[in-house]
């Protein structure tokens, strides 16, 4: 069997035997969480995302968030994820917004047709301006990917300092979901003459509405 | 040096447009990296490099252990791990699965490992359509070319080249505006994504403690490749495994910065198997193909084993004064630049292109920028030694060895050395640096002729340093 052959070759080369533990011990994990207060985190997140051509807006509560989304939609069509937050603040009922999709084929067809994808996010990372999206029954993967525009509504308490805090909270993302994606700004390419083009296969516009 | 290598180097040096393209593109990436890892931007950069090196070293030194742990965790979530020893085995697996499921169309995201095994060609040979979806890779697939650079595959193509390729291959009106070319390609590819049954991706990391694979990209094509089709196949080299998901905090901070100067790429996907019950989208089947293809050959040598720590950021290419002149296509395989110069001879054997470890000035820039601290210059020296040993075994290089023995003798016998210097000064007509070319018997020696075809040797001074020194005292 190829598997055993390859593992055998590896062990012979390394001078190890089958079933032997890793030695010496694995180096300790390096996770350093900086102290950054709430306002500084918002400032950092906003600056990072804007440097990439994304946009950040602030809403004091769900009503304000809904008003911001409504203004952004202006007659455009959208698919909203099944995140309770979006239903809770009435975003899912805005005109032109379809939500509650649970069928894969239907989701794909709709996401390929509408202008805007509206989601929440499980976390935001201040020091890189990233959204962290865990795939689930509430959040499908394609809503933040197929439409040309992505709007994410994120409660402020989900704003982490950065990667180190994320992996402290989720030491094994595989236990929660089949897919954890960090979204850092709009989709981009610079493959022709290194000229930056925003919006390649994914959304060219990313707007994050921070609530609270 | 093989004739082919020599010819490609000369062609690249003679092409002014290509020289400009290589110089500006690598320069931009280089500046991006420098700015993003500066002491001000990233005070703990050096500690992160040490940590990344320590983790990679540990993972490779215990490779069998972590591969088995990875495999256990993938299998526990319903995924399947397949070990392949070479390109044929990979193609056989994909073809077998495609046939079983009645698949005709495959979409692919960017992966150096699939380039390494010529996967597209092999699949297309058997009647499957396998489409590259990264913009640069798509352009190259249409042009039937290989990637020029690990990170910027189509670095050598201008917008006008792209216009020609699109017009010829896609039968569309000529378009030279880059934004419109991008939109055009993405439009064609979107239909492919939505129609394909298999998505093939590479992986930047395999995570042992969770059975996850990690993909880093900017366009979104890898997310689509791994989400839209019902079947997701990952092809990764066995050396990609790291112990813990938490180690990603270290590697993710280094990879995008070293590659392009970004803090993180637009998309970092941590994927752990097929979609779970309740999840609306994502693949139904998940396969990880672990490829050897010569990697285990690198393990026995403790010094050179570190070549396998590479995370394919491309920083050493951008930093390398040799790559920046001779470009990607001078290198005989898919991996170019300093990392290619140490990977290729070890994968293929040093005799594949014996000049490769010598295509370096040993300036050390590659080792300095490597985010996982591979001592590339040291490995280059080890490989040079291997090349010379192989030549000696085959009875080659006798003249060279003789010359160096004579040189060593001269350098360890001061009187003889001084005499030789005086004779050289007497023989040399004063004046310009091409003096040696006027000494016919020397010029007839092939090594001397080859050396002087690119260089001059300044004439020896009338008085040597030793003479001056004596007068002083």
How would you explain this protein's 3D organization?
The complex is a heterodimer of chains A (212) and B (473). By secondary structure, chain A is of the alpha/beta class. Chain A contains six helices and twelve strands. In chain A, the strands form three sheets. Chain A has a six-stranded parallel beta sheet. A four-stranded mixed beta sheet of chain A has the order 8-5-6-9. In chain A, helix 4 links the parallel strand 2 and strand 3. In chain A, 52% of the residues are buried. The model of chain A has no long low-confidence stretch (mean pLDDT 97). Chain B folds into three domains: 202 residues, Rossmann fold, CATH 3.40.50; 98 residues, Alpha-helical ferredoxin (Fumarate Reductase Iron-sulfur Protein, Chain B, domain 2); 75 residues, no CATH class. The radius of gyration of chain B is 26 Å and the shape is elongated. Strand 9 of chain A pairs antiparallel with strand 9 of chain B, so a sheet runs across the interface.
Number of domains of chain A: 1
Total helical segments of chain A: 6
Give the C-alpha Rg of chain B: 26 Å
The CATH level-2 architecture of chain A is identified as 3-Layer(aba) Sandwich
Q: How many structural domains in the coordinates of chain B?
A: 3
Q: Assess the beta-strand content of chain A as a share of residues.
A: 15-25%
What is the percent of helical residues of chain B?
Answer: 40-55%
Strand count, sense and closure of the main sheet of chain A? Answer: 6 strands, parallel
Question: Which range best describes the helical content of chain A: under 10%, 10-25%, 25-40%, 40-55%, 55-70% or over 70%?
Answer: 25-40%
What is the C-level CATH assignment of the largest domain in chain B? Alpha Beta
- Mean model confidence by pLDDT of chain B: 93
């Amino acid at each position: 069997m190829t598997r055993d052959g390859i593992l055998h070759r590896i062990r012979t080369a390394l001078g190890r035997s089958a079933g032997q533990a890793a030695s010496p011990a694995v180096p300790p994990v390096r996770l350093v969480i900086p102290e950054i207060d709430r306002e500084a985190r918002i400032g950092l997140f906003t600056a990072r995302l804007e440097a990439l051509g994304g946009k950040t807006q602030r809403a004091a509560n769900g009503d304000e968030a809904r008003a911001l989304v409504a203004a952004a939609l202006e007659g455009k069509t959208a698919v909203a994820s099944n995140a309770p937050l979006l239903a809770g603040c009435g975003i899912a009922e805005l005109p032109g917004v379809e939500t509650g999709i649970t069928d894969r084929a239907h989701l794909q067809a709709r996401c390929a047709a509408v202008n805007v994808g509206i989601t929440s996010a499980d976390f935001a990372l201040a020091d890189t301006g990233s959204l962290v999206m865990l795939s689930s029954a509430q959040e499908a993967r394609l809503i933040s990917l197929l439409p040309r525009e992505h709007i994410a509504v994120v409660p402020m308490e989900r704003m982490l300092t950065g990667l180190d805090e994320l992996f402290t909270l989720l030491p094994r993302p595989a236990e929660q979901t089949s897919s954890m994606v960090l979204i850092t700004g709009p989709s981009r390419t610079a493959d022709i003459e290194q000229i930056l083009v925003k919006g390649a296969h994914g959304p060219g516009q990313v707007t994050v509405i921070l609530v609270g | 040096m093989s004739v082919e290598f020599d010819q490609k180097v000369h062609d690249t040096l003679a092409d002014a447009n290509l020289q400009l393209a290589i110089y500006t593109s690598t320069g931009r990436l280089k500046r991006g990296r420098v700015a993003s890892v500066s002491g001000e931007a990233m005070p703990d950069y050096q500690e992160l490099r040490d940590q990344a090196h320590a983790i990679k070293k540990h993972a490779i030194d215990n490779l069998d252990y972590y591969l088995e742990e990875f495999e256990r965790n993938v299998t526990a979530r319903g995924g399947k791990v397949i070990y392949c020893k070479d390109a044929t085995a990979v193609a056989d697996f994909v073809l077998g699965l495609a046939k079983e499921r009645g698949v005709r169309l495959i979409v692919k995201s960017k992966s150096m490992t699939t380039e390494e095994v010529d996967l597209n060609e092999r699949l297309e040979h058997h009647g499957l359509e396998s489409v590259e979806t990264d913009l640069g890779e798509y352009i190259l697939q249409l042009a039937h070319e290989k990637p020029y650079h690990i990170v910027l595959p189509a670095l050598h193509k201008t917008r006008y080249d792209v216009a020609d390729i699109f017009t010829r291959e896609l039968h569309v009106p000529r378009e030279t505006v880059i934004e419109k070319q991008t939109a055009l390609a993405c439009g064609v590819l979107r239909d492919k994504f939505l129609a394909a049954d298999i998505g093939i991706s590479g992986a930047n990391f395999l995570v042992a403690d969770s059975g996850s694979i990690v993909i880093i990209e900017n366009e979104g094509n890898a997310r689509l490749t791994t989400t839209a089709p019902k079947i997701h196949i990952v092809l990764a080299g066995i050396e990609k495994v790291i112990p813990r998901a938490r180690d990603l905090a270290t590697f993710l901070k280094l990879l995008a910065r070293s590659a392009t100067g970004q803090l993180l790429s637009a998309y970092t996907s941590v994927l752990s198997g097929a979609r779970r019950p309740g999840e609306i989208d994502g693949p139904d089947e998940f396969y990880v193909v672990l490829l050897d293809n010569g990697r285990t050959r690198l393990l026995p040598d403790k010094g050179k084993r570190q070549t396998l720590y590479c995370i394919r950021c491309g920083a050493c290419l951008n930093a390398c004064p040799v790559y920046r002149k001779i470009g990607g296509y001078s290198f005989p395989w898919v991996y170019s630049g300093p990392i290619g110069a140490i990977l290729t001879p070890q994968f293929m054997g040093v005799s594949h292109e014996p000049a490769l470890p010598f295509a370096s000035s040993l300036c050390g820039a590659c080792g300095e920028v490597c985010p996982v601290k591979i001592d590339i210059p040291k490995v280059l020296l080890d490989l040079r030694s291997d090349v010379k040993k192989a030549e000696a075994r085959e009875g080659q290089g006798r003249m060279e060895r003789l010359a160096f023995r004579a040189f060593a003798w001269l350098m360890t016998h001061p009187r003889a050395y001084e005499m030789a210097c005086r004779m050289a000064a007497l023989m040399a007509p004063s004046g310009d640096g091409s003096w040696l070319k006027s000494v016919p018997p020397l010029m007839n020696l092939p090594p001397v002729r080859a050396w002087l075809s690119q260089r001059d040797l300044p004439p020896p001074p009338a008085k040597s340093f030793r003479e001056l020194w004596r007068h002083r005292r």
